[in-house]
Amino acid sequence: MVSTLSRVALCAAMVLFGVPSWSQPRASGTVSHAIASVAPHTAPRRWRYIVLHHTATAGGTVASIESAHLRRGMNRGLAYHFLIGNGRGLGDGAVEPGVRWRRQLPGAHVASALCEPERGVPYDEVAIGIALVGDLEQRPPTAAQQRALRELVASLQRRFHIDAAHVMGHGEVLGAHTACPGRRLGGGRAWATGAARRAELRRAVLRRAVLRARRRRR
Length: 218
Ligand SMILES: [Zn+2]
Known about the structure:
Blueprint: H1 4-17, H2 31-35, E1 49-54, H3 62-71, E2 82-84, E3 95-97, H4 99-102, H5 123-126, E4 127-132, H6 143-160, E5 167-169, H7 195-217
Parallel strand pairs: 1-4, 1-5, 2-4
Antiparallel strand pairs: 2-3
The structure holds zinc ion.
């Protein structure tokens, strides 16, 4: 039983320091709401990658993109796990989960023949698909989309212990030949956390060292 005095102290502390985040109602469209939307009694999959896309459309909502995917034979609905709106349909910077996230189903956002190199598992089984609404070949994502993307990627990385080197654009997937997610994604991979860029540089240095060693052997 909580005494009146401690209840008053608790209220005063809440006013001073804010309500703890776990008890805050999560507003629809936010990153925390989207991630927490997994259906009850659904075990999380072992996600190991994050693959970024654009919808290559001027606008869209989960419903409109999903019906396009259904027409293309993706019978489990929206191919991506999350959509980030650009204000044309879905709100600017709003993050919405699709049925594949809510039910923790594999995605359908990478060609099914493409497998990740470490274990040979199809990317779609282990990669969370995030799509920015818009044609990022034509125009960059909005500032709100970039903020939401950074927050979503960082939250998913923390939750599933996903290495920054495993966060990539669709076109960076081994064997993929696509311009997706578009050259205007922005900020020299604005979504990257910095660690991805460092991992890239390490690989480039390694490649150069191997080439130098080969040249010396000739
Ligand atoms: Zn794509």
